[in-house]
Design a protein that fits this description.
mainly alpha, 0% strand, elongated
Length: 107
């Protein structure tokens, strides 16, 4: 028999088995789904908070970086827009990293 025929027979057999049985999740699967739901709710709660220190720190670091880059190159219009967006993007990214750290590394 070729491999494709074997795979086809296995797939048909699995389909027959699943037609007659109902799926019941194991205790480990239930626990992992509960943990995921808890992580999602914790992340949603933290996204509602401001985290002012992290945002201000990200804006300051981004502004310093943008000023450094802008000083060393000749800027045209679209690069000015990028330099203005850099501090805000860095602040957003730092806030996301901070929230991820809070959610995944708590005791």
């Amino acid at each position: 028999m070729t491999k494709t025929v074997q795979l086809s027979r296995r797939r048909n057999r699995l389909m027959q088995l699943t037609e007659h049985t109902e799926y019941t999740p194991s205790a480990q699967e239930l626990r992992s789904s509960q943990e995921l739901a808890l992580l999602a709710s914790r992340t949603a709660e933290l996204n509602q908070e401001l985290h002012l220190f992290i945002v201000v720190m990200g804006i300051l670091i981004g502004a310093i970086l943008a000023l450094f880059i802008g000083y060393h190159i000749n800027l045209i219009a679209w690069q000015v827009v990028l330099m203005v967006a850099l501090p805000w993007a860095l602040a957003y990214w730092l806030r996301k990293v901070y929230i991820y750290t809070l959610v995944h590394f708590q005791d």
